[in-house]
Design goal:
GO terms for molecular function: dipeptidyl-peptidase activity; serine-type exopeptidase activity. The longest helix is centred in the middle third of the chain and has 32 residues, at 218-249. The protein is built from 21 helices and twelve strands. Helix 3 (152-166) crosses helix 4 (184-195) and helix 11 crosses helix 13. It is globular. Helix content is 42%, strand content 9%. The strands form three sheets. It has an eight-stranded mixed beta sheet with strand order 1-2-4-3-5-6-9-10, with helices on both faces. The N and C termini lie far apart (88 Å). Among the domains are: 4-30 and 214-409, Four Helix Bundle (Hemerythrin (Met), subunit A), CATH 1.20.120; 504-587, no CATH class; 599-661, no CATH class. It has helices spanning 14-28, 113-121, 152-166, 184-195, 218-249, 253-262, 274-293, 299-307, 316-327, 338-342, 350-362, 383-393, 400-414, 471-488, 491-502, 505-511, 514-518, 523-535, 556-566, 573-587, 644-661, and strands spanning 57-64, 75-83, 94-98, 124-128, 177-182, 202-206, 213-215, 363-365, 424-429, 450-453, 599-602, 623-626. The chain is α/β, with parallel strands linked by helices and 662 residues long.
Length: 662
C-alpha cells in the first residue's frame, strides 16, 4: 500500500512535505477511489459453498413489466437459479431464496441454512433475482423514467407470478412453498406473507429492516455500541479522539494538510462546501459501519486491538485514516468531492437502482446521531446530504418532502413494525445496525417467533456453520430448521422423511468409505456412530462444583473430534447438535406420546438424568424411580443385594403387564 511515509523528504516544514506529496499524487496513485454508503447490502454466498454438489442451473421466465396495468403488455426476462439435488419428487416442498439489491449467485443453492432445510426436507431449491438487479434488466438504460417500475409492489408481484407459474407443473402442484430472505429481501419475504398468504406456507426473514425511516440515526448508534461492547472504553476513546482531532484540524492550514495526509485524500477538501464535508464524513462513518455490518465474533476486537497499537498510525487521527485505508483495501487515494461521489450513481448500475429505491420507498439514510456517539461530531452527514443525491441523480422533485412521503406510504401499506403475518421466523443480531429498524424485542405473533442473538450481525443465520459462530447463533439456525419442518410435515411425515434422508446417497457414502471398511466393524464403532448421528450422550466434565470439574479437557470438542476423525469431517459440532435435535423433534424428548408403558429408573443410575424420572408418562403409564438402584436393575432376577423397593418395583411391573394381557 502506498503511504505518505514511504517518501523520503528532507527535514523541512510540513508545508514543504505536503506540497511535494501533492505533486507526486497524480503520478504515484492510480485511479482515485470513491466509497459508497452501506445503504446497499451485497449478500455474499456462504463461505463454505460445496462445489461438489450437482450443478446449479440457470433459467429465465417471461415476466410482465407492470402487474397492475392490464393494458401494458410489455415484458422482461427474470433470471432464476435452481438446484434439484435433494428433491424428493411430486409434492415435496420448494425453498425459494428471495433476491434483493444484488446479483444472484449459485453459492446460496450449494450451502447455507436454506440449503440444509432443503436437504432435511427433500426440498427443491430456487433463487429468484429482483427486477433491475444482476442480469434481470427490464431496461438497458436506468433513466429516471425507466426506473418507475422499480418498487417493492412490482417485485412482490414478480414472486407471486413466479410461484403460480411454478405450480402449473404437475410435480410442484401440491408443493408447499417456503421463502427465505435476508436484509431487504427479508422485508420482501415478510411482506409477501402478508400480501399473498395463500401462496406460501411460511417464511424466514433474516435481518429485515421492515420500518422505512428517512433520518436513520439509529444505525450509527448501533455501530458505536458494537465497538464499545467488543473493544471497550479504550477503543471508543481512540475513535472519539481521532474524529475530534480531524474536525479540529479543519481550522488551520497545517491541520488541513495533516488531515489530508492521514486520510490519503487525492486532493484538498473544499472546507467551505457542506456537501463535500458530508461525503468526507461518510468516508469515516461508512467504513466503521461496514466493519460492524460484516462483523463476526472477534473481528471488531481485532480492529480495536490495532487501534491500541501503531498499526494504523501514530496519532488518533492517523489511526482513523489508516484504519479506513486498511479495511477498504485502498490501493490509491480517496476522491474528495461530492460531484465525484454523484458520478457513482449516474450509470446503469446496481448502486443507482438501489439508491432510487431509498429515495422513493425506504430512506434508510444513515445520518450522524445526536445522542453522544463518537459520530455525533460529523454534523454534515445529514438528511439534506442524502436527499441532494436523490435530487441531482434522479429528479429535482425528489426533495425532502417527497422522500418523507414515499417512506410514509411504504410504512402505511405494510404496517411498519406491526406486519400482520403468521408462520414467520424473524431473526436479528444485536450488533447488526439494521436491527434498529426491525422487530427484535418481541414475537411478531404467536407461532411467529423472533430470535435476537447477542454478538451476531447482518444475516448471520443464512450462512452455514462457521468456526466463529457462538452456540446461540448455531441454536437459532437449528431452531429455524425445526420450525420449518413442523410447518411442512405432520409428526408422522417427519419420521418418514427422516428415514428417507437416512437412506440417501449422502449417508451411504459415509458407510461405504474405504476408511470405514478398513476398520474392525465392532460394536463400539457402531454405537459411537449412533452417538455422532443421533444421540450425543457425551459425558463431559461438569462446571457445578463436582470433583470432576477440574478435568476441563473432557469437553464436547473432544468427543466430536472422534466423530470427525473416525467417520467423516462433516460430523462436526454443528452436525452433531443438529442430529440430536432431529431425534428429539421426532420422538418428543422428555414428552413422548405413549400409553401402556412402564418406565423404571434408579437414582444412582447416571442415565436417569436424561429420562423421565419424576412423573408418570401418562395415566396408566407409571414411572418408578428407586433409591440406591442403578442401571437396568429391574431386568435382573432377585439378587441378595436388592433392597425391598427394588423387589417391589419388579413385582409391580409383572402385575401391570398381566393386567394388560388379561
Amino acid at each position: 500500500m502506498y503511504s505518505f511515509k514511504d517518501i523520503a523528504v528532507p527535514c523541512s516544514s510540513r508545508t514543504v512535505r505536503f506540497l511535494l506529496l501533492s505533486c507526486l499524487m497524480t503520478l504515484c496513485w492510480a485511479e482515485p477511489r470513491v466509497l459508497e454508503p452501506p445503504i446497499r447490502v451485497e449478500l455474499e454466498p456462504p463461505e463454505s459453498s460445496n462445489f461438489n454438489t450437482r450443478n446449479v442451473l440457470t433459467s429465465w421466465i417471461t415476466m410482465p413489466l407492470d402487474h397492475f396495468d392490464p393494458q401494458n403488455r410489455e415484458t422482461f426476462q427474470m433470471r432464476f437459479m435452481f438446484n434439484e439435488e435433494f428433491f424428493g419428487g411430486e409434492g415435496k416442498p420448494v425453498f425459494i431464496m428471495v433476491g434483493g439489491e444484488w446479483a444472484i449467485a449459485p453459492g446460496w443453492l450449494r450451502a447455507g441454512n436454506m440449503y440444509l432445510m432443503a436437504q432435511e426436507n427433500q426440498g427443491y431449491l430456487i433463487y429468484t433475482e429482483h427486477r433491475y438487479y444482476g442480469e434481470t434488466l427490464p431496461y438497458t438504460e436506468f433513466t429516471t423514467e425507466n426506473l418507475r417500475f422499480l418498487n417493492v409492489d412490482q417485485a412482490l408481484a414478480d414472486i407471486a407470478y413466479f410461484i403460480l407459474e411454478l405450480k402449473k407443473q404437475e410435480r410442484f402442484a401440491n408443493s408447499k412453498i417456503i421463502l427465505y430472505g435476508g436484509s431487504y429481501a427479508a422485508n420482501m419475504a415478510l411482506w409477501f406473507k402478508q400480501r399473498y398468504p395463500h401462496l406460501v406456507e411460511g417464511v424466514v426473514a433474516s435481518s429485515g429492516p421492515i420500518k422505512g425511516k428517512v433520518d436513520f440515526a439509529g444505525y450509527l448508534e448501533v455501530v458505536h455500541e458494537a465497538f464499545k461492547s467488543e473493544g471497550g472504553e479504550q477503543c471508543i476513546s481512540t475513535i472519539r479522539q481521532g474524529i475530534a482531532d480531524t474536525i479540529a484540524a479543519m481550522e488551520s492550514i497545517l491541520g488541513r494538510q495533516s488531515l489530508e495526509e492521514a486520510y490519503r485524500l487525492c486532493n484538498p477538501l473544499n472546507y467551505d462546501n457542506e456537501l463535500d464535508l458530508g461525503y468526507f464524513s461518510g468516508l469515516i462513518t461508512w467504513s466503521f459501519s461496514g466493519s460492524v455490518q460484516r462483523a463476526r465474533p472477534g473481528t471488531l476486537l481485532a480492529i480495536c486491538n490495532n487501534f491500541a497499537t501503531n498499526i494504523y498510525g501514530e496519532t488518533p487521527m492517523e489511526k482513523i485514516g489508516g484504519y479506513i485505508a486498511a479495511t477498504q483495501n485502498l490501493g490509491s487515494c480517496w476522491s474528495t468531492g461530492f460531484e465525484t461521489f454523484l458520478r457513482t450513481y449516474n450509470t446503469t448500475s446496481i448502486s443507482r437502482a438501489w439508491y432510487y429505491q431509498t429515495c422513493t420507498e425506504y430512506g434508510y439514510f444513515q445520518i450522524a446521531p445526536k445522542s453522544g456517539t463518537v459520530f455525533d461530531q460529523l454534523k454534515w452527514l445529514d438528511v439534506a446530504f442524502y436527499v441532494e443525491v436523490c435530487k441531482q441523480v434522479f429528479d429535482q422533485r425528489f426533495d425532502e418532502a417527497f422522500v418523507y412521503d414515499a417512506v410514509d406510504r411504504v410504512n402505511l401499506i405494510f404496517g411498519g413494525l406491526n406486519p400482520d403475518v403468521n408462520n414467520t421466523i424473524n431473526i436479528h443480531g444485536t450488533v447488526d445496525p439494521w436491527h434498529a429498524l426491525g422487530v427484535y424485542d418481541r414475537d411478531l405473533k404467536e407461532g411467529s417467533p423472533t430470535y435476537t442473538v447477542p454478538r451476531a450481525s447482518h444475516c448471520f443465520d443464512m450462512q452455514g456453520w462457521l468456526s466463529t459462530d457462538t452456540i446461540l447463533m448455531t441454536r437459532v439456525q437449528q431452531a429455524a430448521r425445526r420450525l420449518v419442518a413442523r410447518w411442512l410435515y405432520t409428526k408422522f411425515e417427519q419420521i418418514e422423511n427422516y428415514y428417507q434422508i437416512s437412506k440417501s446417497s449422502d449417508m451411504k457414502s459415509v458407510l461405504d468409505t474405504s476408511y470405514f471398511k478398513s476398520l474392525d466393524l465392532s460394536q463400539s464403532r457402531a454405537w459411537y456412530y449412533q452417538t455422532c448421528t443421533e444421540y450425543g450422550y457425551f459425558q463431559i466434565a461438569p462446571k457445578s462444583g463436582t470433583v470432576f470439574d477440574q478435568l476441563k479437557w473432557l469437553d464436547v470438542a473432544f468427543y466430536v473430534e472422534v466423530c470427525k476423525q473416525v467417520f467423516d469431517q462433516r460430523f462436526d459440532e454443528a452436525f452433531v447438535y443438529d442430529a440430536v435435535d432431529r431425534v428429539n423433534l421426532i420422538f418428543g424428548g422428555l414428552n413422548p406420546d405413549v400409553n401402556n408403558t412402564i418406565n423404571i429408573h434408579g437414582t444412582v443410575d447416571p442415565w436417569h438424568a436424561l429420562g423421565v424420572y419424576d412423573r408418570d408418562l401418562k395415566e396408566g403409564s407409571p414411572t418408578y424411580t428407586v433409591p440406591r438402584a442403578s442401571h437396568c436393575f429391574d431386568m435382573q432376577g432377585w439378587l441378595s443385594t436388592d433392597t425391598i423397593l427394588m423387589t417391589r418395583v419388579q413385582q409391580a411391573a409383572r402385575r401391570l403387564v398381566a393386567r394388560w394381557l388379561s
